[in-house]
Amino acid sequence: MKNTNSDAITVQATINAPVEKVWTYWNAPEHITQWCQASADWHAPYAENDLRPDGKFKTTMAAKDGSVSFDFEGVYTEVEPQKTISYTMADGRMVTIEFEGNDNITTVTETFDPENTNPIEMQRGGWQAILNSFKQYTEEN
After folding, report:
1. CATH node for 9-140
2. Helix (H, G, I), strand (E, B) or coil at 137
3. CA separation for the pair 138, 131 (Å, rounded)
4. Quick check: 2 pLDDT over 90?
5. To which H or E segment does residue 87 belong?
6. DSSP state letters, 32-64
7. What H or E segment, with its residue span, contains residue 27?
8. Residues 42-49: contacts with CB within 8 Å, 24+ apart?
9. Rounded-to-integer distance, Cα 55 and Cα 51, Å
10. Domain boundaries, given as residue ranges, for the chain
């Protein structure tokens, strides 16, 4: 089920790589742990991913200095290989990710429900930073 919340936030990146590679790097735990951070002082020491409807995922995101960590997790509601992923986060918010490939260029668009704690621009900035990290990792490897 695609996200239709009118308050949803959207971030996007165009990656210089074919959709097959982008899909693999987005979903394989050995890659997720390499790119899933918003800044250089964070990392993702653990990732698991059961990419199918009703499958679960979990990525541990942590400050490199050990001061704080949290698990980003949810359950998939839709998986259309190399096209769409939708999931519900542990707190009930919805996320949809669309992959649009054209030759060796892929656009990744994430749309997510905002949470009520942090300002919208902070949330957009954080998710965009992680997506930019993904873009950089995918293009360099």
Report:
1. 3.30.530.20
2. helix
3. 10
4. no
5. strand 84-89
6. HHHH--SSTTEEEEEEEE--STT-EEEEEEEET
7. helix 19-27
8. 45/69
9. 6
10. 9-140
Span 3-19, pLDDT tens digits: 556 689 999 999 999 99
Number of Cβ within a 10 Å radius of residue 109: 16
Q: pLDDT over 90 for what percent of the chain?
A: 94
Q: How are strands ordered across the β-sheet holding 42-49?
A: 9-15, 105-112, 94-102, 84-89, 69-80, 56-63, 42-49
105-112 and 94-102 beta bridge pairing = antiparallel
- Taking only the tens place, the pLDDT of each residue in 89-136 is 999 999 999 999 999 999 999 999 999 999 999 999 999 999 999 999
What is the C-alpha separation between 34 and 11, in angstroms, rounded? 20
pLDDT, mean of residues 65-84: 97
Between 19-27 and 120-140, two packed helices, what is the crossing angle to 10 degrees? 120
Number of neighbours of residue 125 by Cβ within 10 angstroms: 14
